[in-house]
Amino acid sequence: MDDLGADLRGRADLLPTRVLLRHPSCTRVLESIRQVRAFYPELDGISLRVGLTRSAAGFASREEPWIWINPRKLVRHTIAHELTHLLQNLGHVPSGEKAADLFALARHPVLCDDVPYYLATPRSLRDAWPAATAEISSLLHRTARESVDRRTSGERRYLVWFEQTLRLRWSERRAAALPNTDPLLVQPTLF
């Protein structure tokens, strides 16, 4: 094991697998997880095992504090989603994939660096992601935060509320961005 492996293996916060230690992306993966984990104080003091996967963006164990991350699909939202599964295991967050997506989006705007996979989002929002990332990230976080607040206030259909409200807000944003196409305002042309 090289010096990097000894240094990484010696830290109690993240315990990488041997496969991850040998992977060229090891340092990048662990640093990304540490950055996201800073937004999860509920996991302080828990040693988190970290492995690699290629079959999905990420996985989390239901029994142990263990996550697997795909280094080729490494975004903060995926890491946050998997850490949220660990909170679900501890009983801090409602169970389910959609809830994990929502609570990850609601945690902090910086964790909204990709469109959620399980929550329904308009196709046009996904298509606009590369050109409007900051605006969409803000919309996702704000709507997710409001949805979590509604759940705290007793709303049982908070996930449906998120999906419907996001669709409505995105439609309103798109309508506001379009030029006025009222036929009465269009100048007639000769050709």
Short characterization:
With 191 residues, the protein is α/β, with parallel strands linked by helices. The chain is built from eight helices and four strands, in the order αβααβββααααα.
Structural class label: alpha/beta
Number of strands: 4
Largest sheet: 4 strands, mixed
Strand order of the largest sheet: 1-2-4-3
User: In the CATH hierarchy, what is the architecture of the largest domain at level 2?
Assistant: 2-Layer Sandwich
Unreliably modeled segments? 1-11
- Which series of helices and strands comes N to C? HEHHEEEHHHHH
The CATH topology of the largest domain turns out to be: Zincin-like
- Count helical runs: 8
C-alpha end-to-end distance = 75 Å
List the helices and strands and how they pair.
Elements lengths: L2 H8 L3 E3 L1 H5 L3 H12 L10 E5 L5 E3 L5 E4 L6 H14 L7 H11 L15 H6 L4 H20 L5 H20 L14
Parallel strand pairs: 1-2, 2-4
Antiparallel strand pairs: 3-4
Helix pairs in contact: 3-4, 4-5, 5-7, 7-8
Description:
- The chain has 191 residues and is an alpha/beta fold.
- It contains eight helices and four strands.
- It has a four-stranded mixed sheet.
- Strand 3 (58-60) and strand 4 (66-69) form a beta hairpin.
- Helix 3 crosses helix 4 (76-89).
- The longest helix has 20 residues, at 133-152.
- The protein is globular and about 55 Å long.
- Mean pLDDT is 88; it is low at 1-11.
